[in-house]
Specification:
This protein is an alpha/beta fold. The protein is built from 5 helices and 7 strands.
Length: 189
């Protein structure tokens, strides 16, 4: 006796094939869009794998007034590094929480540092956003995304928490709340 495929099984197979096709189309389109915009296209295997407990990669980036800032300049201080962009809706949503956490922590733990790394973004857009939101912490630019690639950032926002010796203690992917930032930063030495 010959088995016949159920209509339900054929529907599931069709849906799975469609999803695979959509995924491949998105990958091809996003890769070609990134190339047209001059952005680096790296596969996950070529990105650094930042791990908790490992030293953070060194970087030197510039502020809006072209003052260089290096990670090594922040050694000795618990540091939050936030990868963001002015075109990233979740980044924009979390900004008030980061500002409030920074202000709260500076009152009780003045040695804490926050660094916002504007990634793959236009300098004027970053500057306007920082000024309009009165961001009190350090903002530097990563216009070509090389530092975010070195940190293995696959999506924004991404927040990396370093202890005072520059070791990664926590990696947070996605938007973060004020209470979460304060709790994690208070636990860093």
């Amino acid at each position: 006796m010959q088995e016949r495929s159920s209509p339900f099984g054929l529907i599931l197979l069709g849906i799975a094939a469609a999803l695979v096709g959509i995924g491949l189309a998105v990958l091809v389109l996003s890769s070609s869009a990134a190339q047209r915009n001059g952005l680096p296209v790296l596969s996950p295997s070529t990105r650094a794998l930042l791990r908790e407990g490992a030293p953070a990669p060194e970087f030197t980036l510039n502020t809006f007034d072209d003052r260089p800032v290096s990670l090594s300049d922040l050694r000795g201080k618990p540091t939050l590094i936030n990868f963001w962009a002015s075109w990233c809706p979740p980044c924009l949503e979390e900004t008030p929480a980061l500002i409030a956490a920074y202000n709260e922590l500076k009152r009780t733990k003045p040695d804490v540092e926050f660094v916002g790394i504007g990634t793959n973004d236009d300098r004027d857009n970053l500057r306007k956003f920082a000024e309009n939101n009165r961001i009190p912490y350090l903002i530097v630019e990563d216009p070509d995304g090389k530092v975010s690639d070195a940190y293995g950032v696959l999506g924004m926002p991404t927040t990396v928490f370093l202890d005072s010796s520059g070791v990664v203690r926590r990696i947070w992917n996605g938007a973060i709340k004020q209470e979460q930032v304060v709790e994690i930063m208070r636990g860093l030495r």
